[in-house]
Amino acid sequence: MINPQMIKKLQKMQEDMKKAQAEINASTFYGQAGGSVVRVAVKGTKEVISIDIKREEVDFTDLEMLQDMIVAALNDAFRKVDKEIEETMGSLTQGMRMPGMF
Question: What pLDDT does residue 102 have?
Fold first, then answer.
């Protein structure tokens, strides 16, 4: 037998999750590396918005180091997006694991 109360709860949770995901997608997350020599901004969708490099603190003859800092800064920002998704969705589902959601 289908429980109407449970269906309403699930529908409400689905609406809340869609709203939370939209808010995360519209948010900006920041990452940095090298003591903020490289700073990046990404959307909650993991779209890169900007990369800021402090020119005066970079040795441009060591491009490998600069590339590593860019990758590290991006990974830092992406981890922050993932953490926000996990925390937000986890609080909405109250610990229930929803396959394919996150």
Answer: 46
Average pLDDT, the chain: 89
Token duo for residue 62 = 């060591």
Half-sphere exposure of 25 (CA within 13 A, CB side): 7
Comparing C-alpha atoms, which of 14, 49, 12, 13 is closest to residue 29?
49
More confidently predicted of 76 and 12: 76
Closest CA to 54 of 38, 77, 71: 38
Task: Output DSSP code: residue 58.
Answer: -
Q: What CATH number was assigned to the domain covering residues 4-91?
A: 3.30.1310.10
Phi and psi angles of residue 61, each rounded to the nearest 5 degrees, phi first: -80, -15
Instruction: Identify the helix (H) or strand (E) that includes residue 62.
Output: none
Q: Give 14-46 as a 3 state SS string.
A: HHHHHHHHHHHHHCEEEEEECCCCEEEEEECCC
